[in-house]
Write the structure tokens for this entry.
Amino acid sequence: MPVPAPLPAPDALAQARLLVAPSLDGGLVRELERITGRDAGTLEDVPPPSDAPLLCVGETLPDALRTSRLLWFHSVNAGTDPLFAGGPWPGSALLTRTVGRMGERIAQYVLAWMLAECQSVPEFTALHARAHWQRLPSELVAGQTALVYGTGRIGAAVGRLLGACGVRTVGVARTTRSGPEPGTVRVVPGFDRVIGAAEDGDVLGEARWVISTLPLTGATEGFFGDSRFAAVRGVTFVNVGRGATVDMAALEAALRDGRVRRAVLDVLPEEPAAPGDPVWELPRTVVTSHSSGITTDEDVSADFTACWEAVTAGRRPELTVDVGRGY
């Protein structure tokens, strides 16, 4: 079991140099300087070797800073897999992340596409383009089942909003071993029921929607493959997690034989998708530009402030990333 990184000691935090990504807006940088009470340097301009610890805010971590000098890194994004992909994480460094109102935004994105599908919005749009009048049936979301993979902040926000619309929500936790025991029900806000990933076979066959909010880790890469797509029966698949959690060949096969009736992909294994990428040719699929949960400067400021207040009070921030799990 990985040992959590220790909280920054008050003396070390007081001496830490603040380095921020050059992509950050000037107003946000000034706010970070106000919160921490120190001037900011540029994350890419690595300061010369010294004993001064470093407090960094950004998207990625330069190799030169993957040392014991790194005291704390706050990610401006919710997904931290790019930080781990860059190399070994300094074991003593605290890692926190920004979530902000992302769960709310992603939940509304998911519900919008579900309602659009049930009200035949894509079909009516196509009919309008042809100036063709035709009545089409509608479908109610209430009473149908959505299987939501990921029961953290974002997945729970999706579950809460769908539940408010009468959708039966089943959350899928990591594994049977670290989730609930087989056949048991665990109460988690946002879900009518929570199961382990190893128990999802039967529910996949019952689901009208399969929604992924999964992060990318060694355990989730290619998670949605042949076996899971073989278990579905005419679902709509919505991915707002990470693109590499999906075996795209398996998804294409399921779309072409009808096991997946539609797909809404906000994330892809390789982004951005070039004009010639085969993903644009997938049947009954809409690709959006990784925009379902855009993080704002206000989100970064609010979440960093909460983390700063927790650390300076000697508490572990709620937004701490478990480096061993990758989220």
Notes: The chain has a mean pLDDT of 92.
